[in-house]
């Protein structure tokens, strides 16, 4: 995108030429971002005084640019706070310390083999909650910084995964083997590990070797092969899916062949193969199944013979340039606006209204810490409003997708994406697209599948924006003559913390959103490419065609979140307010009639089983956390959950891969908080969902007392997706945004946003001779000008 500097306006007011695109666009931005506020202030009664730095009515082009670094302190390493993720230096120190420990026999991952010992993943080992609270609420010292390091130990018998705690940071001197008492497997089998680069290297060699034998079949069927096929026709490329088998410990992965065009996900050719990679003796690994022409073969040789003797021959012509277009994002179709003009932008006319110091964010009455957990990405800790903690932790736990289909891949695929490490897939966000251009972008450090920390540039962003809808408003008017009597309103400005993870084909956008009325909202949005297969009549029952020979199949998206709710302390109670129908015919003002109406009863949930809730439309309910304090009206102060976006887990409990996401049995489940029940999932779920290392159901099964205890809510959002032609090239976030909210519920005596400076009250002057506008002392001046967009570089990750 090329952006030109506009020429300086001659007068105090903007003189805009239609062709001066930049100036026009920024004017639009100003109008949009100031919105109602600006309009009102132009007609203000004048009880606002210009700020000393305001340039009166001067054009914004004479202003200094809004600062990118204003109110932001990025570095967090000196020293890190208790919630800070591992720093680059800490990661290096931990790696080097461990490599020096001869007993662990570690090899650098680049030199590691499947039967060796190497570092698989590394992250912060957060101290126990009690220690953290003693530190941040009391006067105790900051707990020692520790790292949790996951090792692949293919060298041991049995081969296993190990978790080690390494401490103290930044200069470790000790390491102890960590055994989480809530884990269901000891030792953790190596077969529960995701396929990493060490294993992938061997598997690709097997694929290459076997496909070399079948080069003439590939070329005869698809016009291209897997080798020596550089050129415009494109190679075939192979990708594996998960889980690797149907039984615990099985490691048999199916692979797809696709044409290596842009958007290759949408060019499956109908060839699928299976590698058997059980055990650590890679010389025994094989390619043991081939699915071709909708037929299963038990060896490459059998497949080649069936092709050579003409029994099975399928030809999938190379798509021409036009046919390839469908998987790209190249603009096509008639131009809706000519010449093309920029859309509205988000801009902060008087600078940022929040500040960030390291991981700590302060936004108006909110403050919290941002933490990069690794496998499940960005989360927030110690979330406070008006200095009262609402939640100790709000965190995405898992993003899962359960597919249905007929062919080997579509009928096998069930994804548990935390195992793929969302932080390592949180790639660079694009200003003005992924986050508004006024956002602050942060790098993170990832240690997964690498020999050292990998910098993920601009991998999450924080921004304030105008949601474009009032948080509240009312137009008071006289019913008789229609004249207004007063107006009260407020824009819903929010602060958003966002990251996006690209897990192979799909992209997820995860937001933590802070509203000014004390509401926290979590949003998961799905976009990216759908998983597609080569069309066959059997799979046609599971989806729709998105191209002449490509079909995308049904699946269910499921997301799990953890909310460690602390309403005015850690001792809380969980109630459902059950909404029922009552019939009354006893009311004198209803004499002779029956009135059917809603009522509700408050049900205290005593134990975890009682609070593991499967949503039923016939039993609507509120989910309420209550403290032991009351508001001004004697009602217990609390927060409630509202779930917008639920889907039934259609895979029955304890079948197939379902145990790996047993949290999906419940829309909300409340458990007594335990440090060891840290997560509803683990990085081992994907490759052993049948007998998972973390089985969420076990958190509920012990059925502990949850009255006046420290409680955690596990929230499941979901969406069924039957893909359609408009899912090509990408699923749109529109209609695929799932949210839940944590809302004050009798917590305040009135709407907390009444304290906001963003409210506006308008009243008519006597005889409707003008209006009195109260905008809380805000003025409508701009003290800095928007930065220009400069999308000239992307993707320069330093590792
Ligand atoms: Cu989908």
UniProtKB/TrEMBL annotation:
<dbReference type="GO" id="GO:0048038">
    <property type="term" value="F:quinone binding"/>
</dbReference>
<feature type="domain" description="DUF1965">
    <location>
        <begin position="266"/>
        <end position="309"/>
    </location>
</feature>
<protein>
    <recommendedName>
        <fullName>Amine oxidase</fullName>
        <ecNumber>1.4.3.-</ecNumber>
    </recommendedName>
</protein>
<dbReference type="InterPro" id="IPR049948">
    <property type="entry name" value="Cu_Am_ox_TPQ-bd"/>
</dbReference>
<dbReference type="InterPro" id="IPR000269">
    <property type="entry name" value="Cu_amine_oxidase"/>
</dbReference>
<dbReference type="Pfam" id="PF01179">
    <property type="entry name" value="Cu_amine_oxid"/>
</dbReference>
<feature type="domain" description="Copper amine oxidase N2-terminal">
    <location>
        <begin position="92"/>
        <end position="173"/>
    </location>
</feature>
<dbReference type="InterPro" id="IPR016182">
    <property type="entry name" value="Cu_amine_oxidase_N-reg"/>
</dbReference>
<dbReference type="InterPro" id="IPR049947">
    <property type="entry name" value="Cu_Am_Ox_Cu-bd"/>
</dbReference>
<dbReference type="GO" id="GO:0009308">
    <property type="term" value="P:amine metabolic process"/>
</dbReference>
<feature type="modified residue" description="2',4',5'-topaquinone">
    <location>
        <position position="506"/>
    </location>
</feature>
<keyword id="KW-0186">Copper</keyword>
<keyword id="KW-0801">TPQ</keyword>
<dbReference type="InterPro" id="IPR015328">
    <property type="entry name" value="DUF1965"/>
</dbReference>
<feature type="transmembrane region" description="Helical">
    <location>
        <begin position="21"/>
        <end position="42"/>
    </location>
</feature>
<feature type="active site" description="Proton acceptor">
    <location>
        <position position="417"/>
    </location>
</feature>
<keyword id="KW-0479">Metal-binding</keyword>
<feature type="domain" description="Copper amine oxidase catalytic">
    <location>
        <begin position="344"/>
        <end position="753"/>
    </location>
</feature>
<dbReference type="Pfam" id="PF02727">
    <property type="entry name" value="Cu_amine_oxidN2"/>
</dbReference>
<dbReference type="InterPro" id="IPR015800">
    <property type="entry name" value="Cu_amine_oxidase_N2"/>
</dbReference>
<dbReference type="Pfam" id="PF09248">
    <property type="entry name" value="DUF1965"/>
</dbReference>
<keyword id="KW-1133">Transmembrane helix</keyword>
<dbReference type="InterPro" id="IPR015798">
    <property type="entry name" value="Cu_amine_oxidase_C"/>
</dbReference>
<keyword id="KW-0560">Oxidoreductase</keyword>
<feature type="active site" description="Schiff-base intermediate with substrate; via topaquinone">
    <location>
        <position position="506"/>
    </location>
</feature>
<dbReference type="GO" id="GO:0005886">
    <property type="term" value="C:plasma membrane"/>
</dbReference>
<dbReference type="InterPro" id="IPR036460">
    <property type="entry name" value="Cu_amine_oxidase_C_sf"/>
</dbReference>
<keyword id="KW-0812">Transmembrane</keyword>
<keyword id="KW-0472">Membrane</keyword>
<dbReference type="GO" id="GO:0008131">
    <property type="term" value="F:primary methylamine oxidase activity"/>
</dbReference>
<dbReference type="GO" id="GO:0005507">
    <property type="term" value="F:copper ion binding"/>
</dbReference>
<comment type="similarity">
    <text>Belongs to the copper/topaquinone oxidase family.</text>
</comment>
């Amino acid at each position: 995108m090329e952006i030109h500097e506009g020429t300086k306006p001659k007068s105090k007011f903007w003189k805009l030429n239609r062709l001066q695109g930049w100036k026009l666009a920024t004017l639009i931005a100003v109008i949009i971002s100031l919105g109602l506020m600006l309009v009102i202030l132009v007609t203000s009664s004048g009880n606002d005084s210009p700020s000393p730095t305001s340039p009166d009515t001067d054009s914004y082009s004479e202003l200094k640019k809004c600062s990118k670094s204003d109110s932001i302190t990025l570095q967090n390493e000196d020293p890190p706070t208790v919630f800070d993720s591992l720093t680059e230096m800490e990661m290096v120190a931990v790696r080097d310390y461990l490599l020096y420990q001869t007993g662990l026999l570690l090899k650098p991952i680049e030199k590691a083999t499947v039967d060796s010992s190497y570092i698989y993943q590394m992250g912060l080992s957060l101290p126990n909650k009690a220690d953290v609270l003693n530190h941040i609420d009391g006067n105790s010292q900051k707990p020692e910084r520790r790292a949790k390091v996951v090792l692949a130990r293919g060298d041991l018998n049995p081969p296993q995964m190990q978790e080690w705690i390494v401490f103290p940071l930044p200069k470790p001197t000790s390491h102890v083997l960590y055994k989480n008492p809530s884990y269901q497997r000891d030792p953790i089998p190596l077969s529960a590990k995701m396929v990493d680069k060490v294993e992938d290297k061997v598997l690709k060699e097997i694929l290459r070797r076997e496909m070399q034998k079948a080069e003439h079949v590939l070329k005869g069927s698809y016009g291209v092969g897997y080798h020596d096929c550089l050129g415009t026709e494109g190679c075939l490329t192979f990708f594996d899916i998960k889980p690797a088998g149907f039984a615990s410990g099985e490691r048999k992965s199916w692979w797809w062949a696709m044409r290596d065009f842009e958007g290759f996900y949408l060019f499956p050719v109908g060839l699928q193969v299976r590698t058997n990679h059980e055990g650590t003796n890679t010389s025994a690994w094989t390619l043991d199944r081939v699915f071709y022409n909708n037929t299963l073969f038990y060896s490459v040789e059998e497949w080649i013979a069936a092709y050579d003797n003409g029994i099975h021959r399928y030809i999938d012509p190379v798509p021409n340039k036009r046919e390839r277009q469908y998987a790209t994002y190249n603009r096509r179709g008639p131009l809706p606006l000519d010449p093309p003009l920029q859309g509205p932008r988000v801009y902060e006319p008087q600078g940022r209204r929040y500040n960030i110091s390291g991981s700590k964010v302060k936004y108006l009455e909110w403050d919290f810490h941002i933490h990069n957990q690794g496998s499940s990405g960005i989360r927030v800790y110690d979330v406070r409003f008006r200095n009262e903690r609402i939640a100790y932790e709000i965190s995405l736990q898992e993003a899962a997708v359960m597919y249905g289909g007929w062919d080997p891949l579509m009928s096998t695929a069930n994804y548990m994406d935390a195992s793929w490490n969302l932080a390592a897939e949180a790639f660079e966000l694009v200003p003005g697209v992924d986050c508004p251009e006024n956002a602050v972008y942060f790098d993170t450090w990832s240690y997964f599948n690498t020999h050292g920390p990998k910098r993920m540039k601009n991998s999450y962003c924080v921004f304030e924006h105008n949601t474009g809808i009032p948080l509240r408003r009312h137009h008071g008017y006289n019913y008789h003559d229609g004249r207004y009597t007063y107006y009260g309103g407020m824009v819903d400005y929010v602060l958003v913390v966002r990251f996006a993870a690209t897990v192979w084909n799909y992209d997820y956008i995860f937001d933590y959103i802070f509203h000014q009325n004390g509401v926290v909202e979590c949003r998961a949005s799905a976009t990216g490419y759908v998983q597609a297969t080569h069309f066959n009549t059997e799979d046609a029952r599971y989806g729709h065609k998105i191209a002449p020979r490509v079909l995308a199949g049904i699946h269910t998206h499921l997301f799990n979140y953890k909310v460690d709710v602390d309403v005015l302390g850690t001792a809380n109670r969980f109630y459902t307010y059950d909404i029922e129908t009552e019939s009354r015919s006893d009311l004198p003002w209803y004499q002779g009639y029956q009135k059917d109406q809603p009522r509700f009863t408050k049900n205290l949930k005593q134990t975890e089983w009682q609070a593991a809730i499967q949503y039923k439309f016939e039993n609507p309910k509120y989910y309420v956390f209550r403290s032991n304090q009351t508001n001004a009206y004697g009602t217990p102060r609390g927060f409630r959950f509202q779930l917008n976006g639920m889907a039934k887990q259609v895979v029955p409990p304890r079948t197939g891969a379902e145990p790996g996401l047993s949290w999906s049995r419940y829309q909300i489940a409340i458990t007594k908080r335990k440090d060891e029940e840290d997560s509803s999932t683990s990085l081992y779920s994907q490759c052993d969902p049948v007998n998972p290392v973390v089985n969420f159901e076990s958190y509920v099964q012990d059925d502990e007392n949850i009255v006046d205890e420290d409680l955690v809510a596990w929230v499941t959002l979901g969406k069924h997706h039957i893909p359609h032609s408009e899912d090509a090239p990408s699923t749109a976030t529109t209609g695929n945004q799932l949210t839940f909210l944590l809302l004050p519920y009798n917590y305040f005596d009135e709407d907390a946003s009444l304290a906001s400076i963003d409210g506006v009250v308008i009243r008519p002057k006597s005889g409707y001779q003008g209006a009195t506008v109260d905008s809380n002392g805000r003025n409508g001046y701009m003290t800095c000008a928007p930065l220009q967009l400069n999308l000239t570089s992307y993707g320069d990750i330093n590792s």
